[in-house]
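[scheduler] slot 2 assigned
[scheduler] job type: sequence-to-structure, two independent chains
[scheduler] chain ordering preserved from manifest
[runner] begin chain α
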Amino acid sequence: MGDGVVAVERPKARTSGVDLLVSAFARLPPLEQDEALSLMDEIRVARQAEVDTETAAFIRALRLVAARNDGALTPDRYSATRATLKIEGVEIPSFPSVVRHFSTWTLAKESIGLSDVTTAKKIEARFRGRVSHRRPYFDDAELLDAIQRCGAFYGRAPLLAEYDEWRLREMALMRARGEWPRVPSTSAIRRRHQSWEEALRTAGYSPEAIYVRLEAPERRSRLAKVDRYTDETLRQTLLRCGGELGHPPLVTEYVAWREEQIKRSRKRRLSIPSNGPFRSRWGSWRKALLACGFDEKEVDARVAAARERTNRNLDWPRSDGR
């Protein structure tokens, strides 16, 4: 071009194979278009059949076993029917192979119903999404239910190691039943509740039950005792002591009663609070007695009598007469 104008050549758009195919298809007469569509559909079906072969083979085996057992499909019946079919000269995949392929026996059985409405490839993709390696999600109820079932198995608040051992056992039982082994790990529980101790508290275990289980004996004397017991535990303990003595207990009486209870008990780890948690929680022994429900007049009378006895002892003449 003249006048110093430079012509810029625009790059040509790249033509894909699909564009060429569509362009050629549009130029065909209507009858040839129908024939081309039919041929492409046959190619697609053939390709789909190659992908579906493995999953479809498992589904056919499951259908055969179900038909032989009037629709009933259990791990035991599958294995027994497979043995019978083998004698007849018919080979089908083993039960472990089926579970491995579908990830669970439940999904394997579900695939039979789905095969009536969709392809084996779509079934496989659907199940793959369910059992992907993403971190499984457990709601709060599932986490607490797992802790409580583990505690019921051991009969006490479970330690981390005990929970791990119980979890492996539960998962093995689920696999044996053909179920997906879905049991939360200790990591999932601690991640939700910040600590194992807090998880046990949320699951309904008392602070003292947790304390007895989690803290090593050599560490217990160094921990703050006030945090080990709930108000209700302290209240019931003090009321029990007062009920056995027949009056609001003084500190010295409670200490003696506690020591006697521990001696009489055959439990190695009997947890009875000392007098410290009562005074730390309510400020003084008198306030603790009142907070636990003892009558104020009776408490004051007991405290006054004890103070008077103490004063008399302090005023008692010495042995040298001074």
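[runner] end chain α
[runner] begin chain β
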Amino acid sequence: MKTNTNMANADEVIFSGTPGESRRPSTTAALAGSALTTVEVKFNAGFGNSVFLRGNGGGLNWERGIPLVCVDGETWRWSGTIQEPIVFKPLINDRVWATGSDLKIKPGQKLEVRPTFGWPALIIPAVREPCSIPASTSK
């Protein structure tokens, strides 16, 4: 599978798949006209900080962000089944906006974003528990 890379305002955006590439969603998704869509934000938010998405469509809105799931020290993920393209933008702690233009994703795509944030992002106090991967415990 080929990967397309687009650069917009110093932010790195990577779409999986190739435009025009034939894809078949699962039968359930095809019947509903929707497909699993994933946004991965690659950013080390620092201890105690979180990454959120705000936008239009897919359960997002521009007034209050949805927290992303912390996958590792610099990967934050949102996944949802959508029927229409969504427009969105990442934020740190649902307060500091990523620089650059709004981003758009279509149903069934996987998008990797490497946003940049302005100076205040570095001093915003944490609003959630830090991302941590639990250590295995044995007794």
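[runner] end chain β
[qc] chain β: The first helix runs from residue 27 to 32.
[scheduler] slot 2 released
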